[in-house]
Design brief:
Blueprint lengths: L8 H4 L1 H5 L5 E4 L3 E2 L11 H14 L5 E5 L5 E5 L1 H9 L4 E6 L4 H13 L6 H15 L3 H8 L3 H9 L5 H8 L5 H7 L5 H14 L3 H12 L12 H14 L3 E6 L2 E8 L2 H13 L1 E3 L5 E3 L12 E4 L1
Parallel strand pairs: 2-4, 3-5, 7-10
Antiparallel strand pairs: 1-5, 3-4, 6-7, 8-9
Length: about 300
C-alpha cells in the first residue's frame, strides 16, 4: 500500500480531534489560503513531484479547512497538498471541515509549519517559541502537537539563545544543529563567536566541537584568586573572546599575572600568532586590535597547558 503523503505524526493526530463530520470532497477553486500561515515559500521541485504522485494515485491524506461566510473554505492544514492537487489538474479534493477561531487557525498553521522538512533548525525553533509564547503551551504540550519528544523541543529552543553569528551559521548551513547545541554551552558571546570561528576554519565535526567547548569550559580551583574589579573582569572577558580560550587575570600584591590556557601545540601556535600580530581575526574576517591595559599586570604573560 502506498504511504500517505502530507502531515507528520503530530499534526496528523490533530485531524480526528478536529473533525466535525466525515471526510468529503470539496471544490478546489473554493479553498482560500490561510492568511495566518507563517510560511510562504514552497519548494517547486518538491511540489512537482507531489503533483505527479497525486495525478497517479489521488490525494491520500485529506486537507483540513473551515467554512467561510461566503460559502467557500479557508485552509487550516494541507496547503502543500492543495497546491500540488491544483498543479495535477484536480477540481475536487478530500477535506475535513471544522469550525476554528482565528487563534486556532494560527496555532494549527504553526504546527503544520514545523512539520515541514525544509525548515532550518532556527526557523523550527522560532515556530516552537511562538507556539509557547502566543498560546501558553508548555514544552510537553508542543512536543505532543508536533510529534516530537520534550527533550527535542527544549534542545531546539536553546538554539535561539545562541550568539547572532552562530544562529546565522546554522541558517546558512555552515554548521549543524548539533554544532549549535555544543556551542550553546559557551554563554559568553565573545567566546562563543571566537570558538565558532575555529570550528568553521578547521571544519570541526560535532564531536570535535563538543570536545573543544568542554576544554574551554574547564575551570581550575581558584581558592587564592582575589575578586576582580569590574574593569579587569571586562578585560578578562575580552581576552577570552580574542584568544578563543580560557584566560584568567590574577591579582597579586605587586601586580598580577595573565594566565592563558592552551590544549595542543597547534593551539599554542595560534595564540602566539594572535599575540605577536597584535590583532584578532573575528568570524567575519575583520581585524580588531587587542586591547592592552598595562596596569592589569606587571608580570610576564604565561601560557599554561591545560
Amino acid at each position: 500500500m502506498a504511504k500517505p503523503f502530507g502531515l507528520g505524526r503530530g499534526l496528523d493526530a490533530l485531524i480526528p480531534r478536529a473533525a466535525e463530520g466525515a471526510q468529503q470532497e470539496i471544490p478546489i477553486d473554493r479553498v482560500r489560503r490561510n492568511p495566518h500561515q507563517p510560511r510562504g515559500d514552497f519548494d517547486e521541485a518538491g511540489l512537482a513531484e507531489l503533483a505527479a504522485s497525486i495525478a497517479a494515485h489521488g490525494v491520500l491524506q485529506p486537507i483540513v479547512v473551515r467554512g467561510s461566510a461566503d460559502g467557500g473554505y479557508e485552509m487550516i492544514a494541507g496547503e502543500r497538498r492543495l497546491r500540488a492537487a491544483r498543479q495535477a489538474g484536480l477540481t475536487q479534493i478530500p477535506a475535513v471541515i471544522r469550525d476554528s477561531s482565528t487563534e486556532e487557525l494560527l496555532e494549527l498553521a504553526l504546527v503544520e509549519n514545523v512539520q515541514r522538512a525544509d525548515l532550518n533548525p532556527i526557523e523550527e525553533a522560532g515556530a516552537y517559541r511562538e507556539l509557547i509564547d502566543r498560546f501558553g503551551l508548555s514544552h510537553e504540550a508542543v512536543a505532543r502537537e508536533v510529534g516530537k519528544s520534550r527533550v527535542a523541543i527544549s534542545n531546539a529552543l536553546r538554539l535561539l539563545d545562541l550568539a547572532p553569528e552562530t544562529r546565522q551559521a546554522i541558517v546558512e548551513g555552515k554548521i549543524s544543529e548539533g554544532h549549535g547545541r555544543a556551542l550553546a554551552a559557551l554563554t559568553v558571546p565573545e567566546l562563543q563567536s571566537a570558538v565558532l570561528a575555529v570550528v568553521l576554519e578547521r571544519h570541526l565535526s560535532v564531536r570535535q566541537t563538543e570536545e573543544l567547548v568542554r576544554r574551554k569550559r574547564e575551570t581550575r580551583p581558584a581558592t587564592h584568586r582575589q575578586p576582580l574589579s569590574a574593569d579587569l573582569a571586562d578585560l578578562e572577558a575580552q581576552l577570552r573572546g580574542i584568544l578563543a580560550t580560557k584566560v584568567g587575570i590574577v591579582r597579586t600584591r605587586r601586580g598580577g599575572r595573565v594566565v592563558i590556557d592552551f590544549y595542543s601545540d597547534e593551539e599554542l601556535d595560534r595564540i602566539y600568532a594572535i599575540i605577536t600580530r597584535g590583532v584578532a581575526i573575528g568570524p567575519g574576517g575583520d581585524a580588531s586590535p587587542i586591547p592592552v591595559d598595562a596596569s592589569a599586570s606587571n608580570e610576564p604573560v604565561t601560557a599554561e597547558p591545560a
